Amino acid sequence: MLYEGKPVGTPDPGAFWRVISEHGVKVLFTAPTAFRAIKKEDPAGEHLARYDLSGFRALFLAGERLDPDTYGWASDLLGVPVIDHWWQTETGWPIASNCLGLESLPVKPGSPTKPVPGYDVRILRESGEEAETEEEGAVVIRLPLPPGNLTTLWGNDARFVESYMSEFPGHYLTGDGGHVDRDGYLFVMGRIDDVMNVAGHRLSSGAMEAVLSSHADVADCAVIGVRDELKGEVPLGLVVLKAGVRRKRSELEAELVRMMREQIGAVASFKRVVVVERLPKTRSGKILRRTMREIADGMDYAVPSTIDDPAILDEIHLALEARSRA
Questions:
Q1: Is a pLDDT exceeding 70 seen at residue 242?
Q2: Quick check: 307 and 288 in contact, CB under 8 A?
Q3: What is the DSSP letter of 239?
Q4: Which region, left, alpha or beta, applies to residue 118 given φ > 0 means left and ψ of -120 to 50 means alpha?
Q5: pLDDT tens digits for range 103-132
């Protein structure tokens, strides 16, 4: 069953619950951004109480990184397994997941669990050497790719090899960065392009976003790297607040900066936070970080054809200008 439309404002944050209740839906698959939108409008989950979800069995989330806070909120609210799984259009089916049909493993929030059968996932350094446990690197899949994956690009074999196979010979480059922990759990922290180089230190936007999203007042967030003459790049946090939050922005910003310093460290050089009404995203829910970086750096940018609402880019531009004048 397909549901088209936003999970809020159609007419309220109970839209998903209504569909599940009325049609006996057992499993829902959507993007984490949908649940962050619901969490923003209805943080206490009051709309859920109006519907019967006794037949609902599991929630699957994919399409972008599932931050631990959103995982915890959805899990506590629904009381069913929340499956964070990671895949790509090119692969056609999940690369890593907690496979309920095989064996349910203990959940580690922030991880899509372990590679599913058929995928040999590795973490490589820029040199091509395999990274150590817990060490950040490029997430790749050792060849051969399993059935169902792309075999080329239509009419352009050379570009297929150049884009996916040339960076690390013998491996498919996913374009994502991450690490594997001591238990073999995979943590996909975001696109390689979203890794910031702050004074020689490589920092993951995903790790910093996890810190911001854990704040009780934050519904959604993004961290981007903006140009800095001294350090090369410095992180900038954009946060969307939950409905009903009325606080001094200066106090909230100070709390977020302190949390980042405590959990990531002073090396992050995180000092700037901008509160926005919403974040620019594609229609499938992916945050347009590159476009926001271009806006923050004062560069000319093209409006992506996949954007859900182009007006959001003007809102981001105005918010950043106002913050720079403050």
A1: yes
A2: yes
A3: E
A4: left
A5: 899 999 999 999 999 999 999 999 999 999
pLDDT of residue 326: 64
Q: Does the structural domain 115-190 have CATH classification 2.30.38.10?
A: yes
Please give the C-alpha separations between residue 296 and each of 46, 167, 260, 325, in angstroms, as whole numbers.
37, 30, 21, 13
Task: Classify domain 195-325 at the CATH topology level.
Answer: GMP Synthetase; Chain A, domain 3 (3.30.300)
Cα torsion angle, 269, 70, 286, 241, sign: negative
Structure tokens at 319: 């918010």
Burial level of 178, CB count in 10 A (0-12/13-18/19+)? Answer: buried
Instruction: Look up residue 161 and give its two tokens.
Output: 């090899």
Check: CB of residue 15 under 8 Å from CB of residue 42.
no
Q: Which class would CATH give 15-84?
A: alpha beta
Strand partners, 122: 140
d(CA 181, CA 164): 25
Helix or strand or coil: residue 322? helix
Cα Rg for the chain, rounded, in angstroms?
20
* pLDDT one-digit tens code per residue, 35-77: 999 999 999 999 999 999 999 999 999 988 898 999 999 999 9
Report pLDDT for 197.
86
Taking all residues of the chain, what is their mean pLDDT, rounded to a whole number?
Answer: 93
Say if CB 285 and CB 278 are below 8 A apart: no
Q: Where are the domains of the chain?
A: 15-84, 115-190, 195-325
Q: How many CB atoms lie within 10 A of CB 48?
A: 18
User: pTM of the prediction?
Assistant: 0.82
Residues 213, 219, 222: CA angle, nearest 5 degrees: 55
Question: Hunting for tokens 């100070």 — which residue is that?
Answer: 254
Q: Measured between alpha carbons, how far is residue 49 from residues 17, 78, 225 in Å?
A: 9, 11, 41
- Residue 63, number of CB atoms within 10 A of its CB: 19
Tokens of 95: 């690369």
